[in-house]
Every structure is written in structure tokens, then in C-alpha cells.
Amino acid sequence: MIGGSRTTEQSTSPAAQGSQNGLATASLVTAIVGVVFAFLLAIVGLILGVVIVLGIVAIVVNMVIAYNLLS
User: Fold this and answer.
1) What are 22-71's pLDDT values in tens digits?
2) Sign of CA dihedral 49, 50, 51, 53
3) Sign of the CA dihedral 29, 32, 35, 38?
4) Domain count, the chain
5) What does the alpha-carbon distance between residue 56 and residue 45 come to, in Å, rounded to a whole number?
6) Does residue 62 form part of some domain?
7) For the chain, what is the HEC assignment?
8) 61 lies in which domain range?
9) Sequence-ordered list of residues with C-beta below 8 angstroms from that of 12, at least 6 positions apart, any chain
């Protein structure tokens, strides 16, 4: 453009900024829910592991008791 003035406009309109805020909020909520879900799965996995180990120990103890009673 020769001899003309160049004006700069804001690249994002207020509506687009609101949309970005909503997207940021949705991302934050999704991240928090994901972290909570991951911790819950880890805790459930640990509990199941402990229950399985206790069950195996109980089975072995019962087998030893039964063997000692029947011998």
C-alpha cells in the first residue's frame, strides 16, 4: 500500500476470547478428572492386590492345617 496508513486490529474478537476461556476451563476440568480417575484406579488395583495376596495366604494356611489334621 503506497502512501496509506496501516492499522492493526485485534486478532481475536471478544466472542473468540470467551470461547478460548471455555476451552481452557474444559481442559482444566478434564485434566483434574483424569488425575482423580488415575489415582482411583491405582488405589483399587492396590486393594485388589492385597485381597488376592491375603486370599492366597489363607488358602495355603488352610492346606497346611488340613494336612496336619489328616496326617
Assistant:
1) 899 999 999 999 999 999 999 999 999 999 999 999 999 999 999 999 88
2) positive
3) negative
4) 1
5) 17
6) yes
7) CCCCCCCCCCCCCHHHHHHHHHHHHHHHHHHHHHHHHHHHHHHHHHHHHHHHHHHHHHHHHHHHHHHHHHC
8) 24-71
9) 20
**Assigned domain for 11 exists:** no
Give a yes or no: residue 59 inside a domain. yes
* Domain-located, residue 5: no
Residue 65: what residue type? I
For residue 47, give the C-alpha cell. 486393594
- Do residues 50 and 43 make contact, with C-beta atoms less than 8 angstroms apart? no
Q: What's the Rg (C-alpha) of the chain?
A: 32
The model's pTM is: 0.57
pLDDT bucket at 1, cuts 50 / 70 / 90? low
What pLDDT, on a 0 to 100 scale, did the predictor assign at position 35? Answer: 97
